[in-house]
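Input/output pair, single chain:
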Amino acid sequence: MHAVHPLTIVKWFFFVLSVASVLYAGLLLVLSEPNIKQATDLAALQAGVKVVNPDMTEYDGEQQVWRLKAKIAEEHGDVVKLDSPHLTMLLDTGQTMPVRAAYGEYHQKKQVIFLQGSVVVRYQEWDLSSEEMFYRQKTGELIAPKDFVLQQEGMVVTGRDLHIFRHDGKVQVLQGVHMNIDELP
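Output:
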């Protein structure tokens, strides 16, 4: 019987360990959910530090999904407080949908942008307003959970719990829909 040198055993051990590590890393990559890349200067924020004119953008692969700007941003742990936020959503249909508010918060771990205080949205030929809305990154929904007014020349729609879906641009109103149409001459 031929004796195996102890260094040969050590070499084979590290070789097998490195191959197993590569396979495990590959498995983690395959099983992990797709990562949405964010480019932001908010990463420079430290707790309590204010940044003037922050600019944050979300991408899904190479496609821009939304862009969030504000006059001032201040980080408080996982929450970034925003003064005069302006969110521009890019719909899969190619349209843009600007959203403005008096103030807001971006919850990084929850991936939700809360907008409050005279929130105004321009969508197609419609003007949408509500006292609060939020954008949920995971589902791509802009939601006005409370009372809203949706206006277009000659038409006003009111209700509660409005959803606009970024992927296809569809609008759903889930509660209390009322519509007024001006009479035509």
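The domain at 37-181 is CATH 2.60.450.10 (lipopolysaccharide transport protein A fold). Helices lie at 6-31.
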